Amino acid sequence: MTSPSPAARRSRGRPAVPLDRILAAALQLVDEEGAEALSMRSLAQRLESGTATLYRHFGNRATLVNHVVDRVFGEVDLDPRALAELSWDQACQVVAQAMFDALGRHRRVAPLLIEQTPTGPNAMVLRERCLAVLLDGGLPPSVAARVYATLSRYVLGFAIQLAGTEDGAERERASAHFHDLPPVGFPATRAAADSLPVPLEDEFAFGLELIVTGLRRLHATAGRAG
To answer: How far apart are CA 114 and CA 103, in angstroms?
Structure first.
């Protein structure tokens, strides 16, 4: 009896799943259950397929994570022509805010960015565009690289906290606690209680402005030294 050909054996297996569908399901899995829930097995179950189907696209989980992260970077809403027309400091704020907004739409994905440096196509294009603006603004390559890295880490640090900000109950509890503190022991906290706790989005915008202000001074100092 003749053995079936490899092609025939494959045809009787599970059908191939399009890459776009796999990544959409992976991102949905992370959105619903968290970054720690993403595995080849859990994703295969969600797709009602087998892990062998996934290994046709990804050699391991790290490669899968790279693709999922890059899909999110593909949602960073930036007009490349508008970005190129900005000053370097304006570009810093726009890029950081756009990255934070994209991660805000997927509040549980940020831990995946800790696992590896994003090197997918979308991440590379974003990095290239931002570095180009920084270099055109007169920053030396070593400084431009550090500026982009600092902004990325800043965004990531805040994005990791997004998973805990979906419910306003904790904010209300903390606000009530600050208002109920005895004025004798905590006069400063009571004085600022109407503004506490600061919403995460406000903290992000305020801190970003401080970072960019410091970078402007660094740039000005470097220019005078040159």
So the answer is: 13
Return the exposure string of 51-65: e unless at least 16 CB atoms fall within 10 Å of the residue's CB, then b: eebbeeebeeeeebb
Identity at 155, one-letter amino acid code: V
pLDDT of 31 over the 60 cut: yes
Task: Tell whether the model's pLDDT for residue 153 goes beyond 80.
Answer: yes
Write down the pLDDT at residue 106: 96
Provide the pLDDT for residue 163.
Answer: 79
Q: Residue 38 and residue 29: Cα distance in Å, rounded?
A: 7
- Percent pLDDT > 70 in the chain is 90
Q: What is the CATH classification number for the domain harbouring 211?
A: 1.10.357.10
Residues 137 and 26 in one domain: no
pTM of the model: 0.86
Burial of 75 (0-12, 13-18, 19+ CB in 10 A): middle
Region 82-95: mean pLDDT is: 94
Note whether 162 and 117 are same-domain residues: yes
Instruction: Specify the DSSP class assigned to residue 95.
Output: H
Both 39 and 101 in one domain: the answer is: no
Q: Could you list the residue range(s) of the whole structural domain that residue 48 is in? A: 14-59
Same domain, 214 and 105: yes
**Is 38 found in the same domain as 96?**
no
Q: Are residues 81 and 118 in the same domain?
A: yes
Which pLDDT band holds residue 165 (cuts at 50, 70, 90)? low
User: d(Cα 189, Cα 148) in Å, to the nearest integer?
Assistant: 35
